[in-house]
What does this fold into?
Amino acid sequence: MDQKLLEEVTNKVYHMIHSYSFLLDNRTSPQWFSRRRKLPFPYVVVLILNLLNRTNQMELTDFFRIILGLPKGGKIPQITVKAFTMARDKIKPWAFLQIFHATRDIILRQDLKLFHGYQLIAIDATKLRMEKQKELWEYFGTGSGTEDPVMGRASTAFDVLNRIVLDAVLSPFFTGERRQAELIIRHLSELKTGSRKLLLFDRGYPSYRLMAQMEKAGMSYLMRIPRSFIHGLKSMKYDTKMMHFKYEKTSYKFLLIRIHLMLSNQKPEYEYLITNVKESLSLEEWKKLYALRWGTETNYHIFKNEIKIENYSGKTVRSVYQDFFANIFILNYLFCFTDISDEIIRKDIEEQRKKGKPIKHDYKTNLNKSIGTLKDEMVTLFLSKSLSVKEKIIKYVIGTIQKFRIPILSNRKADRSASHTVPYTMNMRYST
It folds into this structure.
């Protein structure tokens, strides 16, 4: 990522939210935003992007103080939380999905990091808690009983080498993660990146239907499987074995890989992977490749703990989807800044070591502090017409966040128990 591409992403957001055709496509009724109001369409969109799930009167006051250039104590237009809530209800949530898609396509124009020519994409799901509102409960459902919190299920496709969210889906809780994965695979098949795609899955995903779908789409996969997926794993004599399966009268080949684990009790234990990758890799390379999937776990940690995606700023299905896609965009936008910052930090550390300074760890940008810095400037970035102003702000944000450095610690090596198992169930309740 370079600054010119980041500026292009920023300007794309500006032009989209100020486009009359974008307004026409994304208002819920023809009469909305037809007259000049205190909360015009661009203001409402940027408020949703900027609030990061913390809607309150102070946020609204700060917003207008920024766009009007008023000092603290200056007279601010009286815009209430209720007025904002009514205004956001006039915007389709897909407006934010469009912003996410348009900016993602720009980000993908950079030189991508690849693994043996493959773009590595981890697909994973997570549960998202929501407020116990009647509308949300009726749409999203709960975990199991009526006393459980309202839950949604979200899945993302995350480029683990380049830190880009490529696709995201939010559905009612009863929607199976495989069902969401099938939808994401269809979306990815339409996404042209110029590179072969290798999808990484945990052991809750393997199914012959899903494997056949990826084969038909020309995609490669690497999946961890439960022991129940293939009969006779305990009698496997070698670490690799070529196998096949038949789905809808078509036969497909895949490679079964046995990975040796280091256990705390010193008992022998194995994990099993399956793949349709044609390249020949060593067992250690397969192991390292699958380990890269954990990048998406970090991604969800950022969602929930840094961006706080579960603290929705609205209480309706529409506002939840607005917040969800807005935050997906914000995550990619944040990574644009931190990628540039990380490269500055890397070069700085490298230079200091050349000078003989004893620096024990490598360092990266602190995401939490970066979010706060970026939030303070996003209003101007997305509402200012001045290209020079936006360029200065981008330079300021990058220059500021590269000072927020935290050490990159070695990957944790968690002990595994030989009794560790993960339930393997087929959720047949699909949403329409």
Q: What stands out?
A: The CA atoms of residues 156 and 326 lie 14 Å apart.
